[in-house]
Design a protein that fits this description.
The complex is a heterodimer of chains A (308) and B (270). Chain A is of the alpha/beta class and 308 residues long. Chain A has eleven helices and 13 strands. Chain A has a domain of 58 residues: Alpha-Beta Plaits (2-Layer Sandwich), CATH 3.30.70. In chain A, the strands form three sheets. In chain A, strands 5-6-7-3-8-9 form a six-stranded mixed sheet, sandwiched between helices. A four-stranded antiparallel sheet of chain A has the order 11-12-10-13, covered by helices on one side. By secondary structure, chain B is mainly alpha-helical. Chain B has one domain. The longest helix of chain B has 33 residues. Classes of the chains: A alpha/beta (308), B mainly alpha (270).
């Protein structure tokens, strides 16, 4: 559905210095897929999205959406898009902004008002409908941005830092929204710094750094193959701490009754915990130091264990 | 085939123009008109003023003399204000028409919809033109109530075409550059200076002047449409249509070039 073929984007500064924002980016995104894009600041995520919407043109390679140049695709079909910074005319009122965007999105006149009311309800903006955009809090503005993206049933959805500024309740609701948006003929692309969010929502996650796609992590496969995952885990013990090093010889005490277990498969961790509990230890907590995706991310962008 | 209802969006664009630009244009134009009027206000004729015999002989009745004097007053007023009003109106109408959305990032949601930027802004140009003419007509009607009727078809036509002359240039600058109002003022000053300084030159390079807008000729247009100093002798000046055509044609060419820029220039600023 979306094909990036050796896409590169170079900028030239005022003094002629060349900046490579994107380099040899190649990937295909398939219909029915939720694809995550992760990367540190300046990795090229925003450039990638601007290229996908046709707001920038590539200096090398090509991008095709359903076989069309991005700008031609957008002008013909539209893309549901939430940008990282929600920029809407500050003097517009919430409901007015949505009516305008609905008109431009091509929502038919007979269902336009109903659709606007539906997204207002969906995003919990009812009490803010008459407020001007400049009066909205950061979270409400983000919800308005998401509401305008959901006015039309587009086949391509691009969400750039979608939970930026949302409180925990709305962050959870956003995940429900994405789940509801999944469709066989639709691609959803989510760019986020929040790896936990991507791990929950995406099927695959592309990790970018220095403008390059460093690796693509198949999140679903990773979850299914949890037995091979050697993510470090930490356990907290309320009773029987002296038993830990006998069951897990490599365990490191890190204080306050917690121990770190490195280089073990999930199966080995489970077996050891069973042994500990059988010997009378009271385990109060088990958690991964990094998720599988975070581990992959750290490796891809070259962050070691000792680095933050 | 685009699905977005850009045509229907014209009503929102007109509302935006009237609220954000029309009202300031009206206020600034009224203040400018007042400043233009105040030095000549003491020469405003009154119906009971004594009428010289030669004028009475020429016009027949005191009312006809009064009407002729008011027409002359209008002439003086328009000569002093018309050029400024049209230029400021065009500046207000076109300033940032594209560049603001680009700088503020408003383009991001607008053009993720099935909407072409050239269609959207091309339409905005026409909508602002209509809005501007509404404001100018309103000003003319107000002036007519307070002073003396001034609106004529040729005057409205000249205002409309001179608006195109300035606005076309402003539209191109806004599509291509960031600092569009400053660019428009700079281009206007440069063009007027270059034409006045080198317009008579026979040097081959002087032909390059034709790349610049012929704004130095605009005063001839305003002078002709302002009316006739009726009390003076001589026939009323004809509107110089070729010059007006040159000016408006230059504006149209710039507008079309602006559409081409919008078609090919990417919207994001990096």
């Amino acid at each position: 559905m979306i094909a990036f073929d050796h896409v590169g984007k170079r900028y030239r500064s005022l003094f002629g210095r060349e900046v490579r924002a994107l380099d040899d980016f190649t990937i295909e995104l398939h219909a029915g897929e939720v694809f995550g894009v992760a990367g540190p600041n300046g990795a090229g995520k925003s450039t990638l999205i601007s290229l996908l919407l046709g707001y920038l043109g590539p200096t090398e390679g090509s991008i095709r959406i359903a076989g069309l140049d991005p700008r031609r695709y957008v002008e013909a079909h539209g893309i549901s898009y939430l940008s990282e910074l929600v920029s809407i005319q500050p003097a517009w009122r919430t409901v007015e902004a949505l009516k305008r965007y609905a008109l431009l999105a091509g929502v038919p006149a007979r269902s336009r008002d109903a659709r606007v009311e539906q997204v207002i309800e969906w995003m919990g903006l009812g009490e803010h409908r008459a407020k001007r955009v400049k009066q909205l809090s950061k979270g409400n503005l983000q919800r308005l941005g998401l509401a305008q993206a959901l006015l039309c049933e587009e086949r391509v959805i691009v969400l750039d830092e979608p939970t930026h500024g949302l409180d925990p309740v709305w962050t959870q609701r956003f995940r429900d929204v994405v789940t509801a948006l999944r469709r066989e003929d639709r691609v959803i692309l989510i760019a986020s710094h929040n790896l936990d969010e991507l791990a929950r929502l995406a099927d695959r996650v592309g990790i970018m750094d220095h403008g390059r796609l460093q690796r693509v992590v198949d999140v679903r496969a990773g979850t299914e193959q949890g037995g091979e995952d050697r993510t470090p885990y930490r356990i907290a013990i309320a009773r029987g701490g002296e038993l830990v090093t006998t069951v897990f010889p490599g365990a490191r005490a890190i204080g306050q009754g917690e121990y770190q277990l490195d280089g073990l498969t999930l199966d080995a961790v489970n077996a050891g915990l069973a042994a500990l509990i059988a010997r009378g230890a009271l385990v109060t907590m088990v958690y991964p130091v990094h998720s599988m995706l975070e581990q992959q991310f750290r490796e891809a962008v070259g962050i070691g264990e000792g680095t933050t | 085939m685009s699905r977005g209802r850009v045509g229907a969006y014209a009503l929102w664009q007109l509302r935006d123009y009237l609220k954000d630009r029309g009202v300031p244009t009206l206020i600034v134009a009224t203040l400018s008109a007042y400043l233009g009027l105040s030095p000549i206000l003491e020469r405003l004729p009154r119906l009971g003023d004594p009428v010289p015999a030669r004028l009475l002989q020429r016009f027949g009745t005191p009312e006809a003399v009064y009407a002729a004097r008011m027409a002359e007053f209008n002439f003086m007023f328009l000569r002093s204000i018309l050029g400024t009003l049209v230029f400021l109106g065009a500046l207000f109408a076109m300033n940032g028409i594209v560049a603001n959305d680009r700088k503020q990032g408003f383009f991001r949601f607008l053009f993720a919809k099935p909407v072409s930027p050239s269609r959207y802004y091309g339409q905005a140009f026409f909508v602002h033109w209509v809005g501007y003419m509404m404001v100018m007509a309103l000003l003319g009607v107000l002036y007519g109530f307070v002073v003396w009727p001034v609106l004529t078809q040729p005057l409205l036509l000249v205002i409309a075409l001179m608006f195109v002359a300035y606005s076309g240039i402003a539209f191109l600058l806004s599509a291509a550059a960031r600092w569009d109002w400053m660019s428009l003022v700079a281009v206007s000053i440069l063009a007027t200076f270059a034409w006045s300084r080198f317009g008579e030159s026979t040097h081959p390079l002087a032909k390059l002047l034709y790349l610049l807008p012929p704004l130095h000729r605009s005063d001839e247009v305003y002078a002709a449409v302002s009316g006739t100093p009726i009390l003076a002798a001589g026939p009323p000046p004809a509107i110089p249509w070729p010059i007006l055509g040159w000016l408006a044609g230059y504006g149209v060419a710039c507008y079309l070039a602006g559409l081409v820029v919008l078609r090919h220039r990417r919207l994001a600023i990096v």
